[in-house]
Amino acid sequence: MAASGRERSRSPPPTAAGTRVKEIKVIGDSRVLIAPGLLEEIPSRLQSAGLKPAALVVVSDKTVDSHYGDRLVKAFETHASQNGGGPRILRYAFPSGESSKNRETKSAIEDYMLSNKCTRDSAILALGGGVVGDLAGFTAATYMRGIPVVQVPTSTMAMIDSSVGGKTALNVPAGKNLIGAFHQPKIIFADPSMLGTLSRREVVEGLAEAIKMGVIRDAALFQTMAKHPEAIMSLDAQLLQDVLHKAVAHKAEIVAIDEKETGLRATLNYGHTIGHAIEALVSPKMLHGECVAIGCVAEAELAHKMGHLSAEAIPEIRACFQAYGLPVAPPPGLTLEKLMEKMAVDKKNQGKTIRCTIITSVGSSVDHPLPVPREQMELVVSEMLKNPAVPPHGWQRAEQVDTLRQRQQDAAEKALEMAQRSVELQRDLSDSKGHAHQELQEQLVEQTEQQRKMELLREQYQMGVTPIVGVTVDGAEGIAETERGIESETMGSNIDTYCVVEVANKPYTRMQTGVLQAAFRKAYEFILNGTSLPAFQGAQPAWDYTGVVQDFAFGDVLKFAVYRKDLGVLRVSMALYQYMSNRKFQPSVPMRAEAALEEGLIKPEDAGKITTRDKNNNPPRIAIKTNDWDQPEIQLSTGASNQISYITPVVESEDIKAWLSLNVNFFSIIILFTAGGLIEFQRFFPDTLYW
Ligand SMILES: NC(=O)c1ccc[n+]([C@@H]2O[C@H](COP(=O)([O-])OP(=O)(O)OC[C@H]3O[C@@H](n4cnc5c(N)ncnc54)[C@H](O)[C@@H]3O)[C@@H](O)[C@H]2O)c1
Ligand SMILES: [Zn+2]
């Protein structure tokens, strides 16, 4: 049963996740739906919206496709099987990044569709960030003179900005977005839970546009953003949905009034006059939203100089961008001349006059861009250039991120190898001291060579190539036994331990070792070999697990927790080898004992998988089986857990050197000290050449 748009917004249907869908009308029947969990509901919602193409071409980039492509296709298959059929699903994914947004990719999509006999009754579904949205949207606009497009934005930038409004385009050698069309999507599905796979930098980049929207039109939106930067950056569902809803509602309203950008819509370009000029000079090292943040602050100064804005508003605006870690000062190396030259070709200009969106307070602006006297602009830009700053994220090329991810994977494999090698070496050490010593010597020579390479690495690091951190969770020791524990071990029941590692405030970085029945195995040995009882004392699980910390930043807090499943409450203690920046090697750090945890959610079959916290933010727990007839078959464990945190040093330029060169030593330390076999930290750098 199809409801009208108005009815729908009064009583929006719940999603599978149980949250309310926010709906915003744009132009004609084009509308935006916002809710976590929408992805799975796309097939049914398309159907009830009357969109029933014969073929649906899912266009995506390879990164997004690898995260969400299968899920989306599966949703269509499930829907088709329950509803007696659905559209023929085709899938096309091109390499990620701005460099794909060109004529060649568009032609390739068209040829793919033609060879698959897509006719006018087809539709395109754009699954991805702004690049996918612009490109797939433009392809839909011209394929057989226009077929419907559905947008499924997956980046913050796309959800807040690019997917709404119908602008589509591609880049040509003469410039960005120069060839394109207006083509309104039928429906835009914004599912904020999909943002969880973006890096923080990418999340924040898009948020810059929401702050901008707050500054030009909505003081309340601005205040929300200024008050809750941490929660919003950590993708708090409620706040994020609120921010998306407000920002998108403004964009929709503006687009409805001025679809073809004759006046009001151009005000959305606040911060973009100066921002675009900077971007033209530093892209792709800095991202669009980062340049816009700098532009917004500078253009607030401009509004003040032109007499439209009070001086107090400027620090308020600056602080808000800063709270998100966005740059507010230009990067070093820019000149007034070059920036003015770039500004002269801005789309908003009329003839030679530069035009800018002028804000009048935090939350309001003049409803069309105003001409800006050249001297005034020069004054503002030269003042801005007096205080350059290296951007908070360094100089990482956005388009290198994918390559980096690949390298990180390689490095992770290398990490495993390293861990194995150190174990072998350690074995050698006990086998033959002399032999191992020689090998260690060779190792050290090799590492001196590496030190030189590390210098190169340092340079690379300063250019913004983020180091990656690998964590090897070798094992834990000193886990106290209870009588019941031993008893149940002997009986071969559930004494399972596992370790969970995550970066504080980044739940998506969670890694989990396998679940080990170490004590049980020992008990078994005891039965088989008649080993003496001390073998039980202190179950020492050895997980031998290595994983790479996603999205690592210096200063991050790594949290380790060891969970143990037991029938009673246990005392668990744990030691950790850690290497502090004060150069002292601390052999072990006792863990703080925590009270028994509440019931959790992990089933035995899920143990060992990387899992996220449940909705009450509980860590994963393991369910156990019971033979008690009165009890349900699955019971949740009441075992104990301990947790420790390791704060990675905050990096200063001088420290980087120390950090990197000490890192070399660190490996020898690992090799020498692995004997204790606890948790080791290893830092890995993206370029496998260095190994
Ligand atoms: N049409 C408009 O009105 C409009 C407005 C603003 C920007 N744009 C355009 O948008 C583009 C920038 O958009 P963008 O920042 O989304 O770039 P993008 O599409 O290149 O996405 C950035 C990166 O994030 C990855 N990614 C996207 N979603 C992900 C997810 N959920 N999980 C993991 N990785 C994910 C992508 O693969 C890509 O590597 C530019 O081309 C710009 O011109 C258009
Ligand atoms: Zn923008």
Automatic annotation (TrEMBL):
<dbReference type="Pfam" id="PF01761">
    <property type="entry name" value="DHQ_synthase"/>
</dbReference>
<feature type="domain" description="3-dehydroquinate synthase N-terminal">
    <location>
        <begin position="93"/>
        <end position="204"/>
    </location>
</feature>
<dbReference type="GO" id="GO:0005737">
    <property type="term" value="C:cytoplasm"/>
</dbReference>
<dbReference type="Pfam" id="PF24621">
    <property type="entry name" value="DHQS_C"/>
</dbReference>
<dbReference type="InterPro" id="IPR030960">
    <property type="entry name" value="DHQS/DOIS_N"/>
</dbReference>
<dbReference type="InterPro" id="IPR016037">
    <property type="entry name" value="DHQ_synth_AroB"/>
</dbReference>
<dbReference type="InterPro" id="IPR036062">
    <property type="entry name" value="PSI_PsaJ_sf"/>
</dbReference>
<keyword id="KW-0520">NAD</keyword>
<dbReference type="InterPro" id="IPR050071">
    <property type="entry name" value="Dehydroquinate_synthase"/>
</dbReference>
<keyword id="KW-0456">Lyase</keyword>
<dbReference type="GO" id="GO:0000166">
    <property type="term" value="F:nucleotide binding"/>
</dbReference>
<dbReference type="GO" id="GO:0015979">
    <property type="term" value="P:photosynthesis"/>
</dbReference>
<dbReference type="GO" id="GO:0003856">
    <property type="term" value="F:3-dehydroquinate synthase activity"/>
</dbReference>
<keyword id="KW-0862">Zinc</keyword>
<dbReference type="GO" id="GO:0009073">
    <property type="term" value="P:aromatic amino acid family biosynthetic process"/>
</dbReference>
<dbReference type="GO" id="GO:0046872">
    <property type="term" value="F:metal ion binding"/>
</dbReference>
<dbReference type="InterPro" id="IPR056179">
    <property type="entry name" value="DHQS_C"/>
</dbReference>
<keyword id="KW-0479">Metal-binding</keyword>
<dbReference type="GO" id="GO:0009522">
    <property type="term" value="C:photosystem I"/>
</dbReference>
<feature type="domain" description="3-dehydroquinate synthase C-terminal">
    <location>
        <begin position="206"/>
        <end position="349"/>
    </location>
</feature>
<keyword id="KW-0547">Nucleotide-binding</keyword>
<protein>
    <submittedName>
        <fullName>ARO1 protein</fullName>
    </submittedName>
</protein>
